[in-house]
Structure formats: structure tokens, C-alpha cells
Amino acid sequence: MILPSPRLLRDTAVLGTALAVGWALRPDYGWAVVGVAMFATALVAVDALASRRSLDQVRVAFPNALRLAHRRPETVSVPWESPRSLRSPRLVLDWPAILKWNQDSPTPAVASRGVTTWKVLPLARGQTRVRYAAMVADSLLGWWEIRRRWEPNVVVKVLPDLHADRRRLAARFFAQTEAGLRLRRLPGRGREFEQLRDYIPGDPVEDISWKASARRRKPVTKLYRVERTQEVYVALDTSRLSGRFLPSGAGDAAPPSTVLDRTVTAALLLATAARDQGDRFGVIAYDRLVHRFLAAGQGREHSRRVMDLLLDLQPSAVSADPVELFSFLRARLRRRALVVVMASLDDAAAIRAYQRGSDLVARHHLVLTLTIRPEGAMPVFTGPPPDSVEEMYRQMDRHEQWRRLDELRRSLARRGVDLVVCPEEMLVVTAIERYLDAKERLRL
Known about the structure:
CATH superfamily of the largest domain: von Willebrand factor, type A domain
Order of helices and strands: EHHEEEEEEEEEHEHEEHEEHHEHEHEH
Structural class: alpha/beta
Number of helices: 10
Number of strands: 18
Helix content: 25-40%
Strand content: 25-35%
Distance between the termini: 65 Å
Shape: elongated
Oligomer: single chain
């Protein structure tokens, strides 16, 4: 594609004005005016014909995918090469709306190769694509802009920033063990059948396999082993409450993280911990209905599906229905599993709905509920004394939030469901600690 440049428009206006004034002042030199105009037109046409194919052999090395961290500035470089020198070459990418960008590399005057660099800041978590790119260069005389367009379809994945949480996890577990990770002895004899052997005096009577004993005509004992591969599901609340911004981490460069961003981060690291422990991991996303479900699995391909599912989650505009979630769990999960529910329970209606639904799965699965503590929620008289009537009412409101969550914790404990209310920065650590504790104590 070739388009007139601003220089051509400016020069045309200047030359046209000069020729018009000259013709008006000296009409007898009209032939000279026409000759100059024809020569200028021919020169512009030659410039267009000589430069229109200058970008046909340009090669641009677009990346196949970009993996960026949410709210962490990154530098993206794209090299290009041309068999002939180009005037003022400029590479332009159609960056998606979730990225804030500015071009960092200056445009060279004349070059046949180069690297175009951008500084990008991901504003939101998600997965999108760079669908269009274009190279723009000036013609030989600078009167035309030559453009060539590509459709690179570069995949852009904006992942949660896991660096801070990983450092916090490493520091926490290193401090507990004093020397890093240690092997833990799993107590008990397990529930998973391993093999048969001949009866030895002293074996428990309940472990005798009567059918095998009848076939072999002698007593046979069943041996069990501790289950090594178990199922772990994380259920994420994507309702309207999950779209609220968290007070920590707010800045001028990018919007602060939402509740859903923090729960997605915790789910990703919990999936990594389950993979390292050899367990199967699944994901459930719900609001008014269960709209995403990925059955528990293992392997690299399954980990990729987990990542893609979590990246696409966005807050909805409806309220959550925990009864629908627990009904779905009871109908779909046949094997006993650890279900980690990350829900927003600082709303009175959400608390009542969660109490009604928890009875459906408490006897069939091990349910762990994690919720982020509302800002300032604490018992009254535990903080500094109020200095005004408005501050006193705010403290009473925070006490009421704390009281509702504490009553819910006690109510769920009687049903066999654990509820942990933690600060948002400790959500990841708490989730992994509770998962490892349940695995060590053979609660599954």
C-alpha cells in the first residue's frame, strides 16, 4: 500500500501556491508554469513507482507468544531485516487494550535491519492476541509512505505475578523446616488396595479376603497402601463480589488487583503444589451457575488447560449461588476429593447461602473454604479507640463483619467444613499449608 506523505501535501501546497501567483503576475509565462507542474508531477510519479515495492521482501521475526506478568513492566523486542535500505522504517503493532505501551527504540534515518523495542505494562490478567502489524517507510524522495501489513496472530498471555507469593512460600516453608523440605512419614496404613498375601497369625480379621481364601482354600490377607494420587479441586467464585479491588497494591501505573486476581494466583500455585505431590488437580468456576469445569488430571497438557481456563476467568455481574456449586459437586465428583472453595463471604446473603449448601457435600468430600478478610474486620475494642462518632460507627461495622464470619466458621466446623479467613497476602500460603496438612494427616 502506498499513501501520500505529509511532506507531499505540504510541498504540493507550496508549489501550487507559487505557480498560481507566478501565473497571475506573469500570464505570458504560463507555458513555464505548466512545464514546472508537469515536471513535478512526473518526479512524484517516478518516486512512487521506484519505491512501491521496497517493503515486499522485508522479513519480521514475530514471536509466537508473549508471556507477561500482571502489573510488571516488560520489554518486547521484534527484529526485522530488509535486502535494501529503507528511509525512516517504522514497525507498528496493534497492541491489545489490556496492555499499556510506548515505543522505546528510535526510528533510524536509513537502515536495512533493526530491532524495534516497546515497553509494555499489562493492565489486566487474561489471554488475547496481537492480530495486526505493519511496516511503514518513506519513499526515496520522501513524498510517499509505503506500508505493508501482516497478521502475525501473536498470542499474549498475561499471567498473575507469582514472584512475591513464591518468595513468601519459600521463606515460610524454609523457616518451618530449618533446612528446606524434608520427607514426611505418612501415618496410617491407607485405604487403597495393594495386593494379597498368605494369612499370618495376628492379622486383623477385617483384612481377611474371604473370596480369595475360598478360592485358594487357605486364609488370605488383603494389604493396603497409603493413597499417593488423590484429587484436588479448587472452586473459584467469579460473582460480582470477586470484581472488587483490593486496597493493597494500588498504584498510578496500573489498576490494583481484584479479589478474583488473588484467587487465580492462589489456584495456580496450588495446582503447582498438587503436581509436585503427584495429585490430580481440577478447576471449577461458578457464580449463579457453574460455568467452567475441568476434571482433575495430570500431565503437561492438563497443566496447560488449567492455565488457559484460569486466565480467561473474569468477574460477572451476578451474585454467587453456593447451593448450585455444592449440588454440582455432589453429582459430578464420584471419588472423595479435597475441594478448596475460594469465595467472597463478607456479604450477609452470601453467608446464609453458603451455610445452606455446605451440608450437601460435607460427608462426601473434604471441603476447605478460604476467604479474604475484609479490610479492618476485627473485634471491637481491639484497635485504637475511636476519635470521633463516625469512627466509632465504622468500628462497629467492622466488628459486625468479623462476628458474621466467626459465626459462619463455627457453624461450618460443626458440619465438618473448615473456614479460614486470612489477609489477601497470606491466601496462597494458607491454601498450600492446609492442603499439605490434609495430605499428611490422611484426611482424604
